[in-house]
Specification:
Helix content: 25-40%
Number of strands: 12
CATH topology: Protein Transport Mog1p, Chain A
Structural class: alpha+beta
Radius of gyration: 29 Å
Order of helices and strands: HHEEEEEEEEHEEEEH
Distance between the termini: 81 Å
Strand content: 35-45%
């Protein structure tokens, strides 16, 4: 009887070993899991001028590169964006700033459809009105130039200007404003920095602007 039990147990052990071996052979080898969309977005993009992360708006269909460690604040409904460079240690100097404002296009009555429809201003008219508002807000504003360009594949106007920024002391700030239309909205993309540092920041500003996509 003991011999029979030993033979029986041996058969069971051999059968179980065969099953384990077969399962191991049929189990696919582990391969690296593809990166998720979130991980891909957070990958660092390196250039000669800076390291960037790709920012995707949650409220509007646009994206752009933002330098690593810069502070990002997005309005969850409008998609408006403010991005600031890190604070400069032991100084009250103005921080390089990127701002994106999005405005609804004015409505006008259409004789064809017999209803109100979006009717964007001409780019030059829209830029003129925007600059008039700035001149009322800022002291000693000086316009250096207005040119034609493109942002995110859309025809745009760009204005370069300086103004005084009053805080605990007075800073002279230089800015570039890009204005362009998309669907029924007007996008206003601003790059700002102290006059003394603006040219040094220009390569980074240019890379950010060129990275803008819809």
């Amino acid at each position: 009887m003991n011999t029979f039990k030993r033979i029986f147990l041996t058969c069971i052990i051999l059968a179980m070993s065969a099953c384990v071996t077969e399962t191991a052979e049929n189990t696919p080898s582990k391969t690296p899991t593809p990166k998720t969309e979130t991980e891909a977005k957070n990958q660092t993009i390196q250039t000669a001028n800076a390291n960037y992360h790709l920012f995707h708006s949650k409220a509007r269909p646009y994206s752009m590169q933002i330098p690593v460690e810069w502070l990002i604040k997005e309005h969850t409904k409008s998609g408006a964006l403010t991005v600031k460079a890190p604070e400069k240690p032991d100084t009250l100097d103005y921080r390089a700033t990127i701002q994106l404002n999005i405005r609804k296009t004015r409505l006008a009555y259409s004789e064809e459809s017999k209803q109100m429809e979006p009717k964007p201003m001409e780019l030059q008219e829209a830029l003129d009105k925007y600059m008039e508002g700035l001149q009322r807000s800022y002291d000693e504003m000086q316009v250096e130039g207005i040119d034609d360009t493109k942002v995110g594949g859309e025809i745009a106007k760009v204005a370069t200007y300086t103004y005084l920024k009053k805080s605990e002391f007075v800073n002279q700030v230089k800015a570039k404003t890009f204005l362009f239309h998309r669907d029924s909205e007007t996008y206003i993309l601003n790059f700002k920095e102290e006059v003394s540092n603006f040219e040094a920041m220009q390569p980074i500003f240019e890379e950010i602007k060129n990275s803008f996509r819809f």
